[in-house]
Structures are given as structure tokens and as C-alpha cells.
Amino acid sequence: MLKFYKNHQGKTILVAVVAAFVLGIVTPRIFPHLEFISSTFINLLKLCALPIVLTSLIVTIGNLNQLSDLKIVARNSVIYIVLTEIIAVTIGLVVFNLVDISGNIHAESLLSGAKYTESTATAIIPSQIFNYIFPSNIFQSLVNFDVLPIVAFSIMFGITCALNQNKARPVLDFMHSAREMFLALLNGVMYLAPLAIFVLIGTSVAESYLSGALSNNLWGLLRFVGLFFVALFIHFLWQLMLVVSLYSELGIKRVLTEALPIFTTAFVSSSSLATLPLALEKAELLGGKKKVINFMLPICASMNFASGMMYEMAACLFFMHILGIHPDLLQQILLALACILTGIAVGGIPETSMVSFVTVFGMANIPLSAIAILMPLDRIVDRVRTMVNIFGNTCGTLIVSKSIKDNP
After folding, report:
1. Could you give the C-alpha distances from 216 to 92, 103, 152, 212, 221, in angstroms and in order?
2. How confident is the model at residue 232 (pLDDT cuts 50, 70, 90)?
3. How many other β-carbons are positioned within 10 Å of the β-carbon of residue 136?
4. b/e sequence 60-94, b meaning 16+ C-beta within 10 Å
5. Which pLDDT score, from 0 to 100, does residue 109 have?
6. Could you tell me which of 379, 315, 303 has the C-alpha nearest to residue 342?
7. Are 188 and 363 within 8 A, CB to CB?
8. Are 67 and 77 in contact (CB under 8 A)?
9. Could you please report the per-residue DSSP string of 237-261?
10. DSSP conformation class of 325
11. For the chain, which terminus, N or C, has the lower number of CB atoms within 10 Å?
12. 3-class SS at 120?
């Protein structure tokens, strides 16, 4: 029964969304009595989120011993990965600052009736940034659900493990096991997703319907997805054009023709890891150096989810705008940093968007009920993000190959 449910979870969520829309309009008064279901689901997501971020970052960084072996290849690959992620988040930040699509959206009804006050403040005060990021008690940060201190600690601890591989092996093995157990717990929690989505979407529809704001809210979400796809296309385009400019023998048509199987596999599987074997083959056919491909693509598949980081940044700004929160430049940079670091930490994990959104939304003071608004959209958006991710990773191997002067 559970296997059948898991195999058809996407259809179940679709049914839940349809039922939520119908009942939210027909019987809107029932949903306040069901809110404990959505609250439990969100609490369980929070229970899994920070442990997964902490253990994933430590394991990812602590196991990077191959950097000392590949030297230039590793250095150039990591530099490109980080630059790609920074560019992606910056594109999302710029596009969603230039185009405000929050007009006419009723925040209280869209986000399950919570009350908000207009504010320009976030949880981070600029004068206390370093004291916030490097606290004296990391366990207090866990209790307070503070994201950046956990990420900073994980990076420092991961680097320490990487520099002391032999002594750190038992610790890394424990962290890896803990990560797998929390992932298993998260997979179990996700069985509640259709029911939680039914309640949260139904509550939003009911609130929107009773307030007369239903059509405006739906149109606002469609505008959000459309604008995100515009930002995603810009990210896709600069990588394609850079490859074509570096490889005179490759035209746009040939690159896209060779990449077509990558696009289709990524869309169907919604997994960079599942598309990895095909990407390895196509990158070599397009002229990438084998040692770059064999190092870089597996690393990218586990830590380079640039379009997902862009999605987090876009969603943060979208919901902050409709809530009347207007972060300044420094606060937006800190949010962008959080998007990048959490994206690296949970890269390759099923339902990674849920983990990332829990942490980043918590930092941005966005109610976690916003996650349920995005979950039905994420079924399609995630597939498009995966297509751009794996194509970008393939382009990255070609670009880095050009920076390596020795023979493959």
C-alpha cells in the first residue's frame, strides 16, 4: 500500500489540490478545524531541516580529500560552481527587485490567515552580524532555529574534518549515518504531504474566497512562476552563449541537439543524479576533457543546484513583498548567502526544496505555510529547474576544460 502511494504521490497531491480548491469554495468553514494537520506537518519539516543541513555540509566538505589530488582541475571546477551559484542567485535577486508582481495579492488569505505588520526589519541586525553568525553556544542556535550560525559551524567543522581525514573518519561516518536517518525520517514525513497540502491550500482558498481575493491570489502565483521562468532562461542563456563563444566548432544548434536527451531525462526523472550518466557521455562528445568531466559532474550533481538557489531567492522576495517586508541590500545579500549555503548543504536530497525553504523562510520571517503554496507548483517548476541545472553543469565542464592547459 505504501509503495503504491509513493509511486502515485504526484497524482495524490494533484487530487488533494483539486479537492482543496473545490471544498475551499463549497465548504470553507471546515478548514479551521483541520489546521492541526498542517501545523504538525510543518513542525516535522522543521524537525528534519536543520539536522540535514548540518550533517550534509559536514559530510560534503569533510570528504573533499580529492581536491589535493586534482589541484588545478579541482580549483577551477569549484570556482566555476561557486560563481555559477552566485550568478544564479543574483539573477533572481535582480529580476524580482526590478519587477514587483506582488500587487493585489491578499497576504492574509494566501498565507492561511496569519496576521502581519509592515516592517523593514529581519532577524539579523547589521551591527551584530558576526556575533550572530559565530555564537558561543551552537546548541542555542539549534534551539532558536537560527540558520546562518548552523551553516557557519558546519563549514568550519567540515573543513577541520577535511584537514584531518584519518582522525575524522569515525565522525564523518557518524554524520553520514545521521544524515541518512534524518533523510529516511523526512521521506516518512513526506507521506503526510498530500493531506497537509489539502489543508493548507484549502485554508488559503477558503480565506481568499471569503475575502473576495481568490482570483487575484491565483493570478499572482502564476505571475510568480512566469517571472521565475524568465530568470531561469537568462541563467540558461548565458551558459549556452559562453560555451558557443569558447568552442568555435560548436554552434547553438549542435549543443542543443546533443543536450536534448539530457533535457528529456532530467524532466522525466526530476533528478540531476539520475541524469548524470547521460551528462557524462554528452559532455565528452561536445569536447570536454575527460578528467574534468569525471571530477566535476559528480561534484556538481551533489552540490551545484544553482537554479534551485535562484528559486529560493525569488520565492523569498516574492513573499516578503506581499507581506510588506522590504529588506535592504545587506539583508538581501545575507539571504542570498543563506540560499547558496543551504542549497549546497541539501543538494541531491529528495524534497530538497522543502528543507531549504524551511531554513531560508525562517531566516526571512516568512510564515512556513508559504511552503504549501509552492509545493503543488514545485512539481513542474522542479523539473524545469533540473533541466537547467544539469545542462548548466554540462556546460560548466566544457568551460572549465578550456581553462586547463594540459592534455586530457
Report:
1. 23, 9, 40, 9, 9
2. very high
3. 7
4. bbbbbeeeeebeebbebbbebbeebbebbbebbbe
5. 54
6. 303
7. no
8. no
9. HHHHHHHHHH-TT--HHHHHHHHHH
10. B
11. N
12. coil
User: How many Å apart are CA 401 and CA 73, to the nearest integer?
Assistant: 8
Instruction: Return the C-alpha cell found at 189.
Output: 514525513
Per-residue pLDDT, 385: 86
Find where cell 473545490 sits. 22
- The CB-side HSE value for 55 (13 A sphere, CA atoms) comes to 20
Contact (Cβ atoms closer than 8 angstroms) between residue 276 and residue 302 = no
CA distance linking residue 127 with residue 340, whole number of Å: 23
**How many angstroms separate the CA atoms of 332 and 97, rounded?**
10
Place of cell 577551477: 76
199: cell is: 489543508
Instruction: Identify the bridge partners of residue 293 per DSSP, sorted by sequence position.
Output: none
Distances (CA, A) of 408 to 67, 287, 288, 293: 17, 11, 9, 10
> Interior CA angle at 71 toward 70 and 75, to 5°?
110
CA distance 193 to 199: 10
- Going by pLDDT thresholds of 50, 70 and 90, the confidence category of residue 15 is confident
Rounded to whole angstroms, the Cα distance separating 57 from 345 reads 5
What is the residue type of 184? Answer: A
CA-derived radius of gyration, the chain: 22
Residue 115: how many other CB atoms lie within 10 Å: 7
Residue-level pLDDT at 241: 92
User: Residue 157 — left, alpha, or beta (φ > 0 → left; ψ -120 to 50 → alpha)?
Assistant: alpha
Q: Would you say 363 and 147 are in contact if contact means Cβ atoms under 8 Å apart?
A: yes
**Cβ atoms of 65 and 162 closer than 8 Å:** yes
- E-assigned strands of 57-123? none
Neighbours of 380 (CB within 10 A): 12
Burial 389-407 (b: 16+ CB within 10 A, else e): bbbbbbbbbbbbbbeeeee
